[in-house]
Please model this.
Amino acid sequence: METSFDRQLVSKRDILSLIFELFPWVRQFETALLNEYAKAAFSINPHRSECPERNQAMSLMRSRIGNTARRCGFSEEQISRFESEIEIAPVLQCGPHLHLSIEPDAFYTHLFSLMGIRSHGRRCYISYGCSTVKFVERGRKGPAWLQIDGQAINVFGLSRSKMIPYSILGRNNRYSFHLQNVDRPGPDSEAVSCLRGILPADEFSSAADAIKAANLHLWKRYFDSQIDFLQLDDSDVGDLVADHLADEQSWLRTRLIEDKQFAMQMLSRIDQLAETAWRGWLKNSTHFFWGCIDGRLVPLWLDGAVLQSHASDDIRVEFSAASLVEALENGRIVPNLLLMFIVTSILPGVRVLGGSRHTIYYPLMRWAFCDALRSNDHDAQLLNTLSEDDRPGIWGHRIISSLCEPFSLLNTLGQDGVETLLDHFGQMSIADASGPLSSFTDDPLWAELRMAYSCGKANRSCPKWAFS
Model:
């Protein structure tokens, strides 16, 4: 029988060694307590800049966070705190996809974030969860599945045909928490009955909205009710992009949208990576936006002054501020990951925490952005500001790994479950807390990168400025 060891493409030791090579500042935490690394991940100077483009982007980010918090039902005091803390402590957790917070990838990452936030005595936690993912990512994993007491739970009670083609951001159905046990049909188990009593009973216009609402209930019940938890997803980022495009002075509008040459230069830089040791890490799978048709996503390509699909479902959107805002508002398009990071991180100067792939592709995004900026003299101040960013992207997802099902574990540990787990993992080293690091060791891209690094074809200064 094949084991996980048989599938392993590169060793955990080699992965950690490569991380320490690419990000030398992390090496000091090789034997330190995880508490210390979490504190460092969330240790950042307040937003201060003389760069007008950065200040405007931060102002728009702050306003959008306030509007999102208001829509979620937070009080004016809490909203003010969210707006303040994104400037005082500009850090965004971007690791987990938009899953229920008791799903392992999400749960253990939120534990790590909580560890770092508490170490600074902060009151707010802001997380971005990608909602362009499908209901099923692989097997019985994804936003539509949970494991509880070893049983597979179909979260929304959807058939495969209602899950496989669709992203959870789609508004093509009504969604509620059915929690169907597909391994053991019949009456609810005690754990499922407990979860059913916690999750909202409402119907939602998208699975993403349902998950965000449920996570607020789960956070207050199990995590830390003294720390306010705000979740952003791609619909919120779409609103932020629209905010930029509605502002005639916005850098995003004047330089990315109205100056097609800059947009094409950045796309060209990304295409160039295919001929380097970094091939596969960052690709132009779609140009700045995805097309969205009844919850299905299709790639779009910038052809002259038009974004269009090559699929049978023809989507054509003029690449202008007004047309893009209209398409965002009616749900025909959604920002891709590159544009998401431009408006939430690169422009406003927000540190982003992420996982195994993010650790590499985010620096490459910044490289492509900065290298395109170097092609003219218009953006010298913005480019200089970007060069001074302190640790703009950090490995902060799946730092904690455990085989234990979070929901079962919480119910076993009782009221102080999260406190017990924070203490338990916080006293470990990164190597011990991170488990087998299978998201790295089973990934062919990391195996290829390790080989390229070993023979000198890749290093932290090539492409220049990526990992500085």
Notes: The first strand starts at residue 91 and ends at 93.
